[in-house]
Design goal:
The chain is of the alpha+beta class. The chain has two domains: 3-135 and 283-306, Aminopeptidase (3-Layer(aba) Sandwich); 137-281, 3-Layer(aba) Sandwich (Aminopeptidase), CATH 3.40.630.30. The chain is built from seven helices and 13 strands. Strands 1, 2, 3, 4, 5, 6, 7, 8, 9, 10, 11, 12 and 13 form a 13-stranded mixed β-sheet that branches. A hairpin with a 2-residue loop joins β10 (210-219) and β11 (222-232). It is globular. The structure holds coenzyme A. Coenzyme A binds at residues 22-23, 59, 85-87, 92-98, 120, 122, 124-125, 128.
């Protein structure tokens, strides 16, 4: 059996139907491919790998090469994000995914990628295939109503939700995110495309016309009530915008994803206003390089919008 990138309309149709069945069996107002507008787009066919059995698609996985950068935006390596991993239920347990993921490793090695990174609850399945936990993130819970929090009502500025984004806004949102030791490079064009994901809200706060905080919450079927990407000029601006998110959206509590590498003063003030605190591994990784000195991605943090 050989893998292939979808290229004909019938390939995309069969692949999307497989992913819909395996990953989104319950009805949603949008098809699964809209949740992944880069790796499941027809223009992104080189990131999509299918396996056939008896002339019918049995398995699929994405492999999306990304550049890892440091705080100074210097390139530190290349990794492959893996996602949308699925085998048709009638063909599961026959080694198809083991074969497809092993093919992806060969491709990733040829592309000189240092590691594969993915997000999944199926720890056992991936441990069997040589994946291990990587990175640390904090999950901070925020109550819907908290009189102690800096109030959105008292904010002397303007809030915006969704709408159109200027290139300047997008650049500023990327720049305001806390800079950790290692993260993924993202172009403005990629950011613009990813912001089209359904059920994604982009909250912004402006003071004197200048963007001072932004929060992305929700991402298709995933990250409901989770503020998975954010940035601000200071803690008060971020907490004020969290208060605005809590006022506008109907959730009893909100979760903020925080890189563990966040500066201590920021971390302690966010924790002080949160009602719960948990530490979790950020993702699963499989190192590929056979080089003597392999890259160390233990401090990698990938923002929610980049994960697939
Ligand atoms: C998880 C999934 C992709 C596995 O595909 P598959 O083609 O059935 O997997 P394989 O037959 O290649 O299994 C490889 C190994 O993993 C094991 N395995 C398979 N599914 C597993 C699971 N859910 N948990 C733990 N181990 C699992 C198999 O027993 C096999 O082990 P073995 O070689 O020692 O016998 C498939 O069950 C699926 O599509 N599930 C629904 C969608 C999903 O959850 N995707 C993952 C999102 S990241």
């Amino acid at each position: 059996m050989t893998y292939y990138n979808p290229s004909k309309p019938e390939h995309f149709k069969a692949r999307n139907a497989l992913l819909q069945l395996c990953m989104r069996p319950d009805p949603l107002p949008f098809p699964v491919e809209q949740e992944y507008p880069i790796v499941l787009a027809e223009q992104g066919k080189e990131f999509s790998y299918c396996l056939n059995h008896n002339n019918r698609i049995c398995s699929h996985a994405n492999l999306w090469p990304r550049t890892v950068i440091d705080r100074q935006n210097r390139e530190k390596g290349q990794i492959g994000l893996v996602g949308n991993v699925a085998t048709d239920p009638s063909m599961q347990g026959r080694g198809h995914m083991r074969e497809l993921l092993s093919n992806l490793e060969d491709i990733a090695n040829r592309q000189n990628l240092d590691a594969l990174v993915l997000w999944s609850d199926l720890d056992q399945f991936y441990h069997k295939l040589g994946y291990e936990s990587v990175g640390q993130e904090l999950h901070l819970g925020f109550a819907q109503i908290d009189p102690k929090r800096p109030s959105a009502k008292a904010f002397e500025g303007e809030f915006k939700l969704n709408g159109t984004f200027t290139e300047q806004d997008l650049g500023r949102m990327l720049q305001l995110r806390p800079q950790g030791p290692l993260t993924l490079a993202r172009s403005i064009a990629e950011f613009e495309t990813l912001l089209q994901i359904p059920w994604l809200d982009c909250f912004r706060a402006y003071r004197n016309g200048e963007l001072v905080a932004s929060i992305l919450i929700g991402k298709g079927y995933d990250m409901v009530g989770v503020m998975h990407e954010w940035g601000a000029v200071d803690q008060t601006s971020l907490l004020t915008l969290i208060d605005q998110v809590a006022t506008v959206l109907p959730y009893e509590s909100l979760m903020l994803l925080v890189p563990d590498s966040l500066e201590t003063s920021w971390k302690s003030s966010l924790i002080a206003y949160s009602e719960s605190y948990e530490k979790h591994p950020m993702a699963l990784i499989k190192y590929l390089t056979k080089k003597q000195k392999r890259e160390d991605y233990s401090s990698l943090f990938v923002w929610g919008l980049d994960s697939i």
